[in-house]
Amino acid sequence: PSADAVLEINYLGYEPIAQAVGSRTNITFTLRESAVDVDAVVVTALGIKRSEKALSYNVQQVNSEDIVANKDVNFINSLSGKVAGVTINSSSGGVGSASKVVMRGQKSISQSSNALYVIDGVPMFTTARDGGTEFASQGTTDPIADINPEDIESMSVLNGAAAAALYGSDAANGAIVVTTKRGKAGYTSVTVSSSTEVMSPFILPDFQNRYGTGLNGQRSGSSIYSWGEKLRREARYGYTPNDYFETGHVYTNAVTVSGGTDKNQTYFSAASVNSDGIIPNNEYDRYNFTFRNTSYFLKDRLKLDASASYIYQKDQNMTNQGVYSNPLVPAYLFPRGENFDLYRKFERYNEGTKLMEQFWSSDMEGGDLRMQNPYWINYRNLRNTDKKRYMLSFSASYDILPWLNVAGRVRLDNSNSLYTQKLYASSNTTITDGGKNGHYTEARAYDTQTYADLMVNINKTFGEDWSLNANIGASINNIKTDELSYRGPIQENGLPNVFNVFDLDDTKKRAEKTGWHDQTQSIFASVEVGWKQMLYLTVTGRNDWASQLANSPESSFFY
Predict the structure, then answer these.
(1) What is the DSSP string of 143-167?
(2) Which of 18, 53, 153, 449 sits between 20 and 30 A of 533, alpha carbons compared?
(3) What is the pTM of this model?
(4) What mean pLDDT do residues 285-309 have?
(5) CA 283 to chain centre
(6) How far apart are CA 67 and CA 181, in angstroms?
(7) Distance CA 448, CA 389 (A)
(8) Cα 473 → chain centroid
(9) In this model, does residue 25 exceed pLDDT 80?
């Protein structure tokens, strides 16, 4: 070796050491144990930070780098494969649609088995509305999908009743606790990120091309099955649904700004998601704006934290399950003996009605499925949602003593959305309530959640062996949701394809108003006693007074 060569030794749990080799052939090293603290701290219920080894339940933490490394419009899908025991199923609605998150198996056959989402210690009780089924096929988004993944600092997955006991029955299926970013002191940092995702169908079923339209070897018997007469080779069109699907794209752009002093830190972010799906004329757009400020007063004993978020989201033709209004049904069941290219031009001008009308085989309109041209569904059975949402939160924390702290939080989460469905004239009358001039639906939904809590936190040691960690508090949660919808066929003597609530048929139009208002008042406590940082005893309790039980003999329940 050269005269200035250096030999370096590294070993896990010990400090690295290096010595110059020089002309020596025998070198002795003495390694010293590393003094690095490896005691992990995780965020648990109500945003409380705890030592991981003190927990008697499973908590798995995911850092922001793992969430944004492979971006998904609904960041919950990014947890797939990163958390043990959690099954994540994204819906068929496409980009931005709701996902189902189940921890270690279904808990109920009649109710949701979804986990509870918690943002900075505050439960997000607003959930995705039920999507359309047989006749509607309306897709839905999940409120948690509105969160900008760039704003996430870390996520903790709490599994089991003991883990989520401080949230009560709402967290019976487990909880996903999201901690968002705030400004960092000392310097100003600007982060810009941009990504493009290209989508195509991963797996498609295999199709036979030997037999044409029909059943039992005959052309007659069915107009939608493909087990008719054997086709001549020149009559085999070889159609597959891949001829119908398009290449989808997701464009994600974000910018974050963080900075401040030891006394005041500020964080700001803006992001956009723009997507066109693999289904023709399917689109999803979302725009996020977040501002957060953290300040310290009274020699850092008082901490104030305020944040505001605004989300504008819109989608077109987000498709749920169902039959009559789902374009995948005719795209998958298109008979093997027909030429699909004939129907790509999905409408033709009718001189008699002076309208562009659906072009589709009358043979395939019949039967129980009432199939339409899939492109007609895409472009002339339009489903649109426009949603505006804002979230405001404020928290204050005061250190009364070095081991005694009092903290309070309040969070307001409001959203309003407009959903419209336009079924153009010549759409199948099964879904237009018999109307031949078209059908229109307009639904306006309003959701409000107000949450507030107050906690006293104790973190004290007694001598060298004993420790006490206690959290005692009370909370109130107020949820209100309202939806007003108006729907019906366009009147016979009205103008076709003029979509508004004033031109609907007086005898068939329907107005519906639904909604509910719940309030839950709670007290809770968690007390942990530790001995020599190796043995811990934890007791947790919660009592809820729910408005649904206000007139019942037992108006509260205890955990």
Answers:
(1) GGGGS-GGGEEEEEEEESTTTTGGG
(2) 153
(3) 0.85
(4) 96
(5) 17
(6) 13
(7) 10
(8) 29
(9) no
- Across residues 81-87, what is the average pLDDT? 78
Q: Long-range contacts made by residues 72-78, C-beta under 8 angstroms, separation at least 24?
A: 72/149, 73/145, 73/250, 73/252, 73/273, 73/275, 73/284, 73/286, 74/98, 74/99, 74/142, 74/144, 74/145, 75/145, 75/147, 75/149, 75/152, 76/101, 76/142, 76/144, 76/145, 76/176, 78/149
- Give the amino acid at 118: V
3-class state of residue 24 by DSSP: coil
What confidence score (pLDDT) does residue 38 get? 47
| 398/341 Cα distance (integer angstroms) | 70
Tally Cβ neighbours within 10 Å of residue 27.
11
Residue 467 has pLDDT above 60, yes or no: yes
User: How is residue 434 written in tokens?
Assistant: 């018999």
* Phi/psi of residue 380, nearest 5 degrees: -130, 5
Phi/psi at 250 (nearest 5 deg)?
-130, 120
Q: Radius of gyration of the chain from Cα atoms?
A: 30
Q: Which two tokens stand for residue 72?
A: 């998904």
What is the DSSP code string of 326-369?
-THHHHHH--TTS-GGGGSS-EEEETTTTEEEE---HHHH-TTT
| Six token digits for residue 79 | 């947890």
Token pair belonging to 507:
């005898």
- Residue carrying structure tokens 């069915």: 222
Residue with tokens 């279904």: 106
- For residue 424, what are the CA distances in angstroms to 59, 283, 302, 328, 493? 52, 19, 61, 19, 15
Question: For residue 66, which phi and psi values (nearest 5 degrees)?
Answer: -75, -25
CB 245 within 8 A of CB 239: no
Instruction: Tell me the pLDDT tens digit for each residue of 322-359.
Output: 777 889 988 988 888 788 999 999 999 999 899 999 99
pLDDT at 124 over 90: no
The letter for the amino acid at 83 is V
Question: 539: how many CB neighbours lie within 10 A of its CB?
Answer: 10
Alpha carbons within 13 angstroms on the beta-carbon side of residue 292 total 23
Closest CA relative to residue 107, chosen from 170, 13, 22? 170
CA-nearest of 206, 203, 439 to 325 is: 439
Please, are residues 277 and 284 in contact by the beta-carbon 8 Å criterion?
yes
Place of tokens 């009718």: 350
Report d(CA 18, CA 352) in Å as an integer.
Answer: 92
pLDDT band at 169 (very low <50, low <70, confident <90, very high): confident
pLDDT tier, 397 (very low <50, low <70, confident <90, very high otherwise): very high
Residue 430 predicted with pLDDT over 90: no
Residue 184: closest CA among 42, 292, 298:
292
CA distance 438 to 422: 7
Distance in angstroms (rounded) separating the CA atoms of residues 508 and 489: 7
Kindly report the number of other CB atoms within 10 A of residue 350's CB atom: 13
- Residue pair 285/315 in contact (Cβ under 8 Å)? The answer is yes
Q: How many CB atoms lie within 10 A of CB 522?
A: 20
Alpha carbon 333 to its chain's center? 31
Residue 225 structure tokens: 């099955």
